[in-house]
Amino acid sequence: MSTSIAITNGVLVAKNHPLNGSLVSIRWADGIISEISSQKLDADQVIDAQGGFISVGWCDSFAVLPDPGAEWKERLDSFAQAAIYAGFTQSAVFAGVDPLPEKATSITALLKRSAHFPLEILPLGAASESCEGKEMAEVYDMYTAGTVAQTDGMRAHGSDGFRAKLIEYAYSLGIPYLVHPFNPKWVAGGQIHEGAVSVNLGLKGIPRIAETSALLADIELAKWLKVPLRVLGISCKESVDIIKRARLDGVEVWAAVPMMNLCFTEADIANFDARFKVLPPLRTEADRSALRQAVLNGDIQAICSNHTPEDIENKKVEFDYAHYGAATLVDFIARLYASFSDTEIPLIINALTNGNRDFLGIKSPILAVGEPVNLTVINNSVSHPHNGSIAYNQLQMPSNGGALVCAVRDAHLMINS
Amino acid sequence: MSNGVIKHLLGIKGLQRNQIESIFQTADNFSELLKAPVKKTPALRDITIANLFFENSTRTRVSFELAEKRLGADVVNFSSASSSVKKGETLIDTVNNILSMKVDMVVMRHPAPGACQFLAQHVNAQIINAGDGTHEHPTQALLDAFSIRNHFKGSIEGKKVLIVGDIKHSRVALSNIYCLQLLGAEVMVCGPATLIPKNIESLGVKVSHNFDEALKWADVANMLRIQLERQDSRFFPSLREYSSLYGLNTTRLEKCNKELLIMHPGPINRGVEISSEVADSANSIILQQVENGVAIRMAVLFLLAQRNL
């Protein structure tokens, strides 16, 4: 006999749903939605959302998992736990450092290892061999094995000629290619954003032009090749302006901003705090504000966790030697709640649901009777600080505690408590 | 810092003006001591100090060692051309190993900006920054300001100090800017645009690329060395061209037609940023800077050891 479950008393965030913005109850059994109502529903198990937000399950558009190869930093299972804790039911993951995800076998293995997880892993495959930005990886082979997109992540950025070939090749085969605009030639030894803080700390800077010059080149390539552009990890106001101008010129541009760049600035590094040493770098308050506004008005469609765990030995060193990256998932919701008002949160949820999936070119779950259940419920007024059950061996982001998060996919129901 | 008393000297940033003045007053006393036939005092007799130099140094290392010995401290020296991290050991482990031999204070020079701050957060000893990468060199700034103060009979307030040369790669420049501004001086930096950090105006300094104009503005010119060891590519076409644009020589000094105090933190590249005639001229206080360095470092060590800064 099947058990019915209902989530009640939550504000629905679903742009095109007739009950969008109102209190709803959703009931399901055997992983299939049986009723959606503005009335309180009974079920064998009832979860009170207490005025929090209900939406389709969140999807992360970019995270890094160092398993296989550096499992001591994070394992696939602990990653999945952390992603669920953050409210995600799907996560696009660049998984593996040794080997890198540059062969179909790596993708197949990842899908096999994660098949039973409540979190649906969406593999990202390398765009170039060894992620060096020189020669194309077997992107079609990986795509047919199950990748959702190809990317070299937040670091490598090949020459204009290489990117042109890759954009054209991937597009011709219907493979999304996520390009991170970053020209390393501008940043020899750069550690943090080039600005007041880098001057104060005597650290070499990463100027905005390292990003904007590459972004402009990518847009020109997209214009020339007549293909859409998916831009991963923008970090400055100028990039937002460039993207808006490109759209006016008729270029189809999708953009994703990392959570850290929405919630923190260069000022957070002012005490040589290596936890905030990330790529793309944290920039000024003006940049953060512009990125925030761009998410709220839809100029940036997607928010990625850019979760890039590092072990403590690579962080608890002199700042110059500290590795880039931050484990962002455990504190993901608390940080968003700290940076956006309650009235803005629905727009953020929209970015985390439809925006991230549009960015990746995948379909959103359908919220309707008869469809598989795939939901995320959050409520900031009910605090459930991280209880330490997620195994980490890395320097954590400072935590503000968390919100009630309930993630539901198929037969899986996960509640932080 | 707690209750206004500092445990470490990690940089000039964070110091108060009265703390700098306290260092100067103490240094005045040590300057007198250093002129006496017996140049030692047992003030730090029971203190052990480790000088950890992960980067080359001649004058700063010798100056600290002399300061420590003249205060009666026990001194141990450790030099390594490369950082401990590159040898596979963390900086914390290296220092903790030394501290386990009952060391009270650490004077450290390190190529990474923020290394002293990092160490202060993780080890149980008093840390004095002897230069961390391109971040700060607080005792150099203190001795520079002390030298200016002494030359101008006690006050820096309102003086116009020009810092010339490789500002981008200089820890001396940053500490000097903080220190001089705190003491009421105006600061201008001058050099080719490629050697001036972007956004340096945010520190409240003036910027010039015209050396002759800048000299007319200044009361003091502090000439910096080109830090070729920190440059991964050339920031100007040649030393010859650099010298013609930003080198201080008698012709340039005569053109500016004013009494100018000439300083240099050393080591000097004669004929590049400064000519021998100017370096050795009556207006130059380069050797007084070196002399004052010992008194300033004695003052810093003494006040920190007494928890009185």
Encode the helix/strand succession of chain A as letters.
EEEEEEHEHEHEHEEHEHEHEHHEHHHEEE
First-residue to last-residue Cα separation of chain A: 27 Å
Oligomeric category? heterodimer
Across the major sheet of chain B, the strand order is: 7-6-5-8-9
| Overall mean pLDDT of chain A | 90
Cα shape of chain B: globular
The count of strands of chain A amounts to 18
Reported for the largest beta sheet of chain A, the result is: 8 strands, mixed
Q: What is the alpha-carbon Rg of chain B in Å? A: 19 Å
Number of helices of chain B: 11
Unreliable segments of 5+ consecutive residues of chain B = none
Strand portion of chain B, in percent?
5-15%
Offer a few descriptive terms.
A: alpha/beta; TIM Barrel; eight-stranded mixed β-sheet; 12 helices; 18 strands; B: 309 residues; alpha/beta; 9 strands
Description:
- The complex is a heterodimer of chains A (417) and B (309).
- Helices cover 29% and strands 23% of the residues of chain A.
- By secondary structure, chain A is of the alpha/beta class.
- Chain A has one domain (58-367): Metal-dependent hydrolases (TIM Barrel, Alpha-Beta Barrel), CATH 3.20.20.
- In chain A, the strands form 3 sheets. In chain A, strands 1, 2, 3, 4, 5, 16, 17 and 18 form an 8-stranded mixed sheet that branches. Chain A has an 8-stranded parallel sheet with strand order 6-7-8-9-10-13-14-15.
- In chain A, helix 2 (104-113) runs parallel beside helix 3 (139-145).
- Chain A starts with a strand and ends with a strand.
- Residues 384-402 of chain A have low confidence and may be disordered.
- Chain B is 39% helix and 15% strand.
- In chain B, the strands form 2 sheets. A 5-stranded parallel sheet of chain B has the order 7-6-5-8-9, sandwiched between helices.
- In chain B, strand 5 (160-164), helix 6 and strand 6 (186-190) form a beta-alpha-beta unit.
- The A-B interface holds A 188-189, 194-196, 198-205, 207, 271-272, 313, 316-321 and B 13, 83, 85, 90-92, 110-115, 117-118, 122, 132-136, 171, 174, 197-200, 202-203, 232-233.
